[in-house]
Amino acid sequence: MKPEINFTFQGRLKPAAWLAVLCLLLSGAAQAFLSEEDDLLDAEVAFSASGSSRGDTVLVHYNIAEGYYLYRHAFKFTPVTQGVTLGEPVIPAGEKHIDEDFGEVETYRNSLDIQIPFSYVGQVRPTIIELQATSRGCADRGVCYPPHMQALAVGIDAATSTAVTGPDAAGASTVAAPAVSEQDRFAAILMQGVSVTLLTFFGVGLLLAFTPCVFPMIPILSGIIVGQGKPVTTGRAFILSVVYVLAMACTYTAVGVIAGLSGKNIQVLFQSPWVLSTFAAVFVALSLAMFGFYELQMPSAIQSKLSSLSNSQQGGSLVGVAVMGLLSALIVGPCVTAPLIGALIYIAKTGDAVLGGVALFALSLGMGAPLIVIGTSAGKLMPKAGPWMDAVKNLFGVLLLGVAIWLLSRVLPAGVSMALYAALAIGSGVYMGALDRESRDNWRKLWKAVGLILFIYGAALFVGALAGNQSMLQPLQGIVNGATNTADKSHLAFRRIKGVAGLQQALDEAKRNQQPVMLDFYADWCVSCKEMEALTFTDPQVRQLLSSFLLIQADVTANEEEDQALLKKLELVGPPAIIFYDVNGREIPGQRVVGFMKSQDFAAHLQQLKQSQ
């Protein structure tokens, strides 16, 4: 008789139904908010802005619709064109106004002209300066708009401008194409309306679904469905998958909004060794149940109480599935991507948590859509109880063990992780009959062949781990040929820095040596960071292009106060992120890299960066 371990949740449909309704309300909140006052003018119309220049000054003109006004304290102007510096805006005095939120303020009606001095450095004289103008206003009826960003392209009068330093060798006016980072482009998409935002972020989420950040959720969800203990219909598998994805999406959205408003990424708090170890232990327990060592169910006393409260026990695990979706979003997938940062930039700069949250929700649904398809199809893998169902459960038991090792690999040395993967591969191979006597059954021969491959691969991983290698794809590299220096191929020579003071010290040194700088943000729990390290930084072309750079790295694994201060100063929520600085120690605008980038794309980025200098 199998021992029973009290582990899983039992619940009714009602909590999951409430979860679905809550998330649907969240997804429609922005549209409801924006359509609440259908007769209000759009911000672009109510506060239209245009730009011109005179000498060394940019002139920004606002045309304010009747019945609307702008706040003086809310203006902000940010240059987009590389090398341009804007001075303090000259804003005329406004009309005194007592505001319920801000107290005594100055406001403007009808029209307003603002003068902004500018200067720039470089060898190319631009004829256009692009800048981002931020304003905030209200309608007299008592409705206020969130901070509104507008992109302006201002033609520069080259004949009278003296702001340029460094002559143009050709003597002709040329346009310097402004560089805009990928995350800034996603932030700009949010300014184009709800429909464009939802479609764009959902599509990007679909692409992110096929990255290592989401892959571990596949065996988690499938294992939950397969481990129900009885055949699951396609409809039931669909409901379980939807509940899991909605819980994940709601959590991802809430965490993103909090990060955008406060600048702190809650997911980072769940990457500590004890949290990851606890969650890995949960997956080990689930996997052992898949292998049939015990059954996971609630005590009979609690089950009888639940039975008296509910007339239907349809699997009874919807609450547990929702909890697992919540935990998966917090622990399994803490990846930082350009679309995520774009939404957080928008939330931070505008305070519009509604539209930013809807964008994150659409992104999460895109990431979860393939999970729903896979989870729903998992119900078809269990036509009836028997050997076939046991084989499927064993498969997902192995996959759940792999997820547990994957979580622990964030905090364990690479050699230990490889040894654990080796043990899993060898054990799976033995379980599949790699060492059994040959059978005449064709299916057994097939499984034995697969098991033998796993056994050999696991043995290679184990030998590679003992030899100090870290590559899962080439565990015997440097052993077979004896001539390959794996250390030279696996890591760039980064210098570790700590906090804002460490960064400034490195920039000062690089400035004295007239050397450009690349700052890489890294953490042991960051999956994309390790992808960059193993697949991008090992590329010979990338290494050659970076040969002239001072390479510094901020390890924010511990998430200490100094790490948080540095992230906040640079307006980041976590790794992976790469920032480039010129020989004068100033960040090169529009060149940040957030998230994983393939070696060929990163090499092209570096070439473009060098050409712009």
What does this entry show, briefly?
Helices cover 49% and strands 16% of the residues. The chain is built from 21 helices and 19 strands. Strand 7 (95-99) and strand 8 form a beta hairpin.
Structure description:
By secondary structure, this protein is of the alpha+beta class. Helices cover 49% and strands 16% of the residues. The chain has 21 helices and 19 strands. Strands 2, 3, 6, 9 and 13 form a 5-stranded mixed sheet that branches. Strands 15-17-16-18-19 form a 5-stranded mixed sheet, with helices on one face. Strands 7-8-4-11 form a 4-stranded antiparallel sheet, with no helix packed on it. Strand 2 (47-54) and strand 3 (57-64) form a beta hairpin. Helix 8 (273-290) runs antiparallel to helix 13. It is globular, with a radius of gyration of 29 Å.
Strands, helices and their partners?
Elements (H helix, E strand, L loop, with lengths): L3 E2 L7 H22 L8 H4 E8 L2 E8 L3 E4 L4 E4 L4 E3 L8 E5 L3 E6 L2 E11 L6 E8 L1 E3 L8 E8 L8 E2 L16 H8 L4 H15 L8 H10 L7 H29 L3 H4 L3 H18 L4 E2 L3 H10 L8 H15 L5 H13 L2 H26 L8 H22 L5 H18 L10 H26 L18 H5 L4 E3 L1 H14 L4 E6 L4 H10 L3 H6 L4 E6 L5 H9 L7 E5 L11 E2 L4 H14 L1
Helix pairs in contact: 1-6, 1-12, 3-11, 4-12, 5-10, 5-12, 5-13, 6-10, 6-11, 6-12, 8-13, 11-12, 13-14, 14-15
